[in-house]
Amino acid sequence: MKTERIEITDKIREKLISERKRTGVGSYVLLRGNPVKGLTSATVNQWVSGKVKMAGKIKIDAVFKLYSDLPTVEIVPLTLEKAKEIKNRIRETGLSLDRLLRTRNDVPHGLKGKHFYNTLCPPIGNTYNKLWGDYVVRICEEYIELKQKNDPQVDKVADRANPKLQAISTDKLKKLQGYNEAIKGYYAKLFENSKVPQNLTPNMVKNWVVEQTKTALPEHVDWVLDRSAEILSEALAE
Question: What is the mean pLDDT of the chain?
Fold first, then answer.
């Protein structure tokens, strides 16, 4: 049985464009997690451009069904205060946004950590997806609350965020705590005039020392211990 083919009319093209604007989702993101057999994002783009003028009705209906399942985005101006608020919440978790999103099974369609975080960086004056912003703040606050309660669920979340994380040994933890007591302004000095490993922050180190976070990348812990020894050696030589 042949598939019914219909003309891509101006009305269909206008509706596709309207759905892109309504949802903030282009054809690539739309189909990435919801593949339609025999259909690519390039083909959908050709429908919109008018380059392809006929298509299977079942494919067109499938695309509109995918769009109908998506919420309407609210694109609003991004103020400096709002950007700072969201970035501060992310920093307080001790995880990158990409890693935090990996722990969730309810991430809004199309939200990518690195891309969203970049919209929060200068120059401010951009617009942003309010649904995504509200979601990011909420999941950060949920994670921060778990940390504040010393909930064992924190380590499980961290492990899902980065499967390479390992428990910080008792020996290394005692060394970190000893350096914190011996070096004034410890966390700030660690990150002064030194090549810091990617994604390592002072807040992460503090969470290790106070035992709020009990897992870490081994190379991060080793770098902090080596750097701490250097700082202490320099202080004693003065």
Answer: 84
Q: How many CA atoms lie within 13 A of 157 on its CB side?
A: 26
- Cα-flanking dihedrals φ and ψ of residue 75, to 5°? -90, 115
Percent helix / strand / coil, the chain, rounded to 5:
60, 5, 35
Band (125; pLDDT cuts 50, 70, 90): low
What count of residues does the chain have?
238
Give the H or E element holding residue 18. Answer: helix 10-23
* Segment 65-79 mean pLDDT: 87
**How far is Cα of residue 232 from the mean position of the Cα atoms in its chain?**
36
Q: What is the DSSP letter of 113?
A: H
pTM exceeding 0.85: no
Q: How many beta carbons lie within 10 A of that of residue 47, not counting itself?
A: 21
- For residue 190, the one-letter residue type is L
Q: What is the mean pLDDT of residues 187-209?
A: 81
pLDDT at position 204 over 80: yes
Question: Which class for 110: exposed (0-12), middle (13-18), buried (19 or more C-beta within 10 A)?
Answer: buried
Burial of 13 (0-12, 13-18, 19+ CB in 10 A): middle
Report DSSP state, residue 128: E
Which of 149, 152, 148, 141 shows the shortest CA–CA distance to 100?
A: 141
- 172-194: pLDDT as tens digits: 999 999 999 988 888 888 887 66
